[in-house]
Prior knowledge:
Layout (H helix, E strand, L loop, with lengths): L2 H7 L13 H11 L11 E7 H10 L21 H16 L6 H9 L9 E8 L4 H20 L3 E5 L6 H8 L5 E10 L17 H4 L4
Antiparallel strand pairs: 1-2, 2-4, 3-4
Amino acid sequence: xxxxxxxxxxxxxxxxxxxxxxxxxxxxxxxxxxxxxxxxxxxxxxxxxxxxxxxxxxxxxxxxxxxxxxxxxxxxxxxxxxxxxxxxxxxxxxxxxxxxxxxxxxxxxxxxxxxxxxxxxxxxxxxxxxxxxxxxxxxxxxxxxxxxxxxxxxxxxxxxxxxxxxxxxxxxxxxxxxxxxxxxxxxxxxxxxxxxxxxxxxxxxxxxxxxxxxxx
Length: 216
């Protein structure tokens, strides 16, 4: 597989099989991901990994824990256009595939809660950053996470980056006994794609080049 294929095939997987992902493979992917670009070689990512028995304990103690106020705005509070429409559309496309109408609020909330069970993924990790870091180091996290997701595609796995976990950061940090100086950015579900589920046919639209790029 070349890079272009991995980029094209990467998607947010929202239904996984229960097939295990080995610790050895997770270690290999994370070690390779550490080659991601990092300004000044700061490498600000700190990772806490779940699988096997630890995942079972996590689901029984954290997945249904109360939500807390995120320590950062997952989206801008007054998200303008065209970004607001783009975000709205991908959500509606997903719920249409799931057969959940807009007026069925209970079903939509139940589906949202699946975030906190990693959509059935057998493995996951949480990406933290030291609180002293600023926006440039947060961009480093994005490059680290993207590198991991592309390597996962190459390895035959699916992933879903989940900022929703910022709303349960207190419970997650207690579970891992994460140091106070670390802030949770997101979770990452990792596993084998359940191709039988319609939600995994979602292919989000991308803005045409002439709308986001200017050539001098």
